[in-house]
Design goal:
The protein is α+β, with helices and mostly antiparallel strands and 183 residues long. The protein has 4 helices and 11 strands. Helix content is 23%, strand content 35%.
Length: 183
């Protein structure tokens, strides 16, 4: 009986250690992980394995960690590290993208639209400050919050589907605006 309990404890510890070593989980501060798990109970934190193996390997071969679901930047220009996270739905459905701005020792959460239907193709990232222009492929009318072009004074958030779209979000005057940068 003691051997069996010890085996179960070791198996549990090994599976927990495997999750803790995941490159996506390693990028999410514990205080943020706790808030995300509480506020978005229908989703879970991302794992490297949420994306397609081809895209994970491509990311790693270009200097990444293989994690396409978490990125860091100073998105609000206050000099602190903020985090964008692509949450994975627990029971199917579209992924949820949340920008977590570090404020006063806590986090202010901003869910943003991703237009990506399947978590396996979702990626999030940070882009340096600069000008972003709308792709000519996005020829329809502008939607609420959408711009033809904009200049991000801080890091921007990029969200998209691998090998397809790139939508760049900027936090300007306390609001999120976006540009379809590629389609």
């Amino acid at each position: 009986m003691t051997k069996r309990v010890l085996s179960l404890l070791l198996a549990g510890a090994c599976s927990y250690a495997g999750a803790a070593e995941d490159a996506c989980r390693a990028q999410i501060p514990a205080s943020l992980a706790s808030v995300l798990e509480s506020k978005f109970a229908g989703s879970r934190l991302p794992l490297v394995s949420d994306n397609l193996e081809y895209n994970i390997n491509y990311n790693k071969s270009h200097g990444g960690t293989g994690c396409l679901g978490v990125a860091e930047g100073d998105f609000d220009g206050n000099g602190t590290k903020d985090v964008v996270v692509g949450l994975t739905p627990k029971t199917g459905g579209a992924p949820v993208v949340v920008v977590a701005l570090a404020v006063d020792g806590g986090w202010k959460l901003h869910p943003i639209k991703s237009w990506v239907d399947h978590r396996s193709r979702l990626y999030v990232g940070a882009v340096p400050p600069g000008r972003v222009k709308r792709t000519p492929a996005a020829d329809g009318p502008l939607e609420s919050g959408e711009r033809k072009s904009m200049t991000c004074g801080n890091d921007g958030v990029v969200v998209g589907a691998t090998e397809s779209t790139a939508i760049v979000y900027c936090f300007l005057r306390g609001k999120w605006f976006y540009v379809w940068a590629s389609d």
